[in-house]
Amino acid sequence: DDPEDIEGHEWSFETLSSLSIIEQPENVLADTGDDAYFTVEGECAFESALSYQWYRSYDSEIDPGGDSQLYSGTTLELLDVGLDDEAYYYCMVSSAEAVAYSDVVTLGIRRYMPVGHWTLDAADYQQGQYIDLSGEGNHAEVGGEPTFVDGIVTGDQDPENMKTSGAVQIQEDDGWADVGSWNPAEFTNQFTISIWLKWTQHSPEEIEWNTIVSKRDGWTGIDDNMFQILISGPTQQITMQSWGDPSFVTTEETSVEPDEWYHLAAVYDGEGAKLYLDGELAAQVDEYVVDGGGDSRFWIGRIGDHTGERFDGVLDDLQVFNYALAPEDIADLYQLETGETVCLVEYIEWDLTGDCAVHEGDLSLLVSEWLESGMYPVED
Fold first, then answer.
1. If pLDDT is split at 50, 70 and 90, which confidence band does 320 have?
2. How confident is the model at residue 222 (pLDDT cuts 50, 70, 90)?
3. Pairing relation of β-strands 28-30 and 105-109?
4. First CA to last CA distance, the chain
């Protein structure tokens, strides 16, 4: 504190670690019965032998004292994997001088059945819950008293044959549901949302955003929003939005008219995202970032307490998968209720009629213009 003291610059330095990881393991998505492999490689600044110890965790946190020890070696091999193997994995790399930990990665087991399935029928509403028919036990706590109306899902390929009390009418305080902090993509980093919907249009001042499904608690931070799927009332578009950059995929304007039934499938494959309407691709982005929100709540028909972003209309048969469904799978879901065929390609050479097939109609058009020419002078 002497006023004659001369204050110098503060300075510091950090030493480089003597141990680094030069090859990190990667997430694995497998089918039941597959073999799965995780590989790591370390490098030491000193010529010390390296040791590798793999661990399995169920909460994504590194805790060598409490997690299960597995294999000691650079490559962890898991044979004939099943649901019991679905977890987080990491490796502790050590030398005489230092310790380093690999990235925490996941082994996800692809289910070919939904991991969440709510018919939203009156028959599957019990004791204030929409019952989850997937067998995973993710029953949805319903807000208020649901109003059940005719639904489109019957499985008879006849869209005119409605199912009595087979869908729910979402209203301001009634019919929406809370599944809890369930994350269908926890181990797979993929998901597919499949649902039938019919929405009601209001003025933007009343309901501008009709939330169909969301895994979001708010906008206060990265942990609040994994994804939300909604309809923009003014533009009649469906949008899926997440917390990340980039994190936005949307259909064209007026792609969903009010008071009409649509089948919607929203797909995230770990890298990009797609939206399908009535079995056909309606929007896609090659890069779509889902960054956080894994512990946020999964909502049907609203976002938390945001009644201004609730769905207003009818929802039927919500299914959630823990992987990205193929276009053929989505077309099957639509065709099961309507019996209609779906075009899965954007362009077929010689499809002159534009009906997604090459047949005698295209040949007739070609023949009708056979030998017509704009060349000059005209040749015989």
1. very high
2. low
3. parallel
4. 108
Q: What is the 3-state secondary structure (H, E, C) of the chain?
A: CCCCCCCCCCCCCCCCCCEEEEECCCCEEECCCCCEEEECEEEECCCCCCEEEEEEECCCCCCCCCCEECCCCCEEEECCCCHHHCEEEEEEEECCCCEEECCCEEEEECCCCCCEEECCCHHHEECCEECCCCCCCCCEEECCCCEEEEECCCCCCCCCCCEEEEEEEECCCCCCEEEECCCCCCCCCCEEEEEEEEECCCCCCCCCEEEEEEEECCCCCHHHEEEEEEEECCCCEEEEECCCCCCEEECCCCCCCCCCCEEEEEEECCCCEEEEECCEEEEEECCCCCCCCCCCCEEECCECCEHHHCCCEEEEEEEEECCCCCHHHHHHHHHHHHCCCCCCCCCCCCCCCCCCCCCHHHHHHHHHCCCCCCCCCCCC
Residue 287, classified by CB atoms within 10 Å of its CB into exposed (0-12), middle (13-18) or buried (19+), is exposed
Distance (Å) of CA 326 to CA 118, 268, 331: 21, 11, 9
Position 259, amino acid: D
**In whole angstroms, how far apart are CA 143 and each of 173, 179, 299?**
7, 11, 11
Measured distance CA(53)–CA(99) in Å, rounded: 11
What's the pTM value of the predicted model, to 2 decimals?
0.86
Q: How far apart are CA 143 and CA 220, in angstroms?
A: 24
Q: What is the percentage of the chain residues whose pLDDT exceeds 70? A: 95
d(CA 210, CA 236): 10
What the block records as the tokens of 11 is: 């300075």
Tokens of 335: 């065709």
**What's CA 338's distance to the chain center, in Å?**
25
